[in-house]
Amino acid sequence: MKENGLVEGMREYMDLLRKEGRYSSAKSYQDALNSFIRFNGTERVSFLAVNKDSLRRYEAYLLGNGCMRNTISTYMRRIRCVYNRAVEEGKAPYIHNLFKNVFTGVESKRKKALPQEEMYRLMTVRTEEPALCKAQTALCLMFLYGGMAFVDFAHLKADNFKEGILDYKRQKTGTPMRIEVLAVARTLSEKLAGMASGSSGYLYPFLCGTKADEEGYKEYNTALARFNRNLKALARVAGITSVVTSYTIRHSFATTLKDLEVSVEMISELLGHKSITTTQIYLKSFSLERMTAVNNACFNSVYNYVQQMG
Fold first, then answer.
1. How crowded is residue 114: how many other Cβ atoms within 10 Å of its Cβ?
2. pTM for the full model?
3. 36, containing H or E segment
4. DSSP class of residue 47?
5. Which residues, listed in sequence order, are joined to residue 166 by a DSSP beta bridge?
6. CA–CA separation, 63 vs 107, rounded Å?
7. Where are the domains of the chain?
8. Can you give 79-133 as a three-state secondary structure string?
9. Where are the beta strands (DSSP E) in 133-218?
10. pLDDT digits (tens, 9 = 90+) for 178-198
């Protein structure tokens, strides 16, 4: 058993992901590997170092360092994937239920959606800062385009728009999307497109359009980080203390539709999800005020039944 078998296996798998153009996944595996190396204190980590006891200690180590449970789950699932590949190749011993006692699920307690009043303030607060105006216009358009993810928004091209219809494929899943562009969206689109300097091939001013493969992925990450910084600055101007990122727009879009009693099936289709289960992760609980009103209406409908029938 190689003394650095796990590290070597992780790096081989990352190389495969990069060849397939899956740079985001490769980065996720690199983050998990870096973390596990820090835990072990060495790059000489064999597959024998992965056992039920070491995984429990690793989970405790991550919790002790303030890692969120979803981050822990991601790291564990990355290690599990490479370990299982090694088992299939005869490079690691099979251990029944090896990852059973560590967290590998999804915890969706933290809600990313903003109340409608705060979204309104984000969309309408006055600012003269060009970068914040750009972020605000993009925020409004992403909301108007069906809660579009920033990765899809940044990669839109002029030929995605024809006769008032926006057609594109989601970068993440390849799901084809089709949206009618409202009049207010056309106005905002012209405004944002006018902020671009030079010709990048993309409609909106976020990517240069000349970088490809891993360099293109890095450029996108830089653009996303800049957009998130500007959204946070815009939130401060609007007096909003909640955490605001590009994901907030998508989650808030979904939750607003839920509050409007739109079906989960419709919300799922608008978001381009392949599974309603994914959509439900986006949907936060109703507000206390909304639940109180419904609870009161339910009670009254029963308690006042006789009067209503009379």
1. 23
2. 0.79
3. helix 23-40
4. G
5. 161, 179
6. 14
7. 5-88, 116-288
8. HHHHHHHHHHCCCCCCCCCCCCCCCCCCCCCCCCCCCHHHHHHHHHCCCCCHHHH
9. 161-162, 165-169, 176-180
10. 999 999 999 999 999 999 777
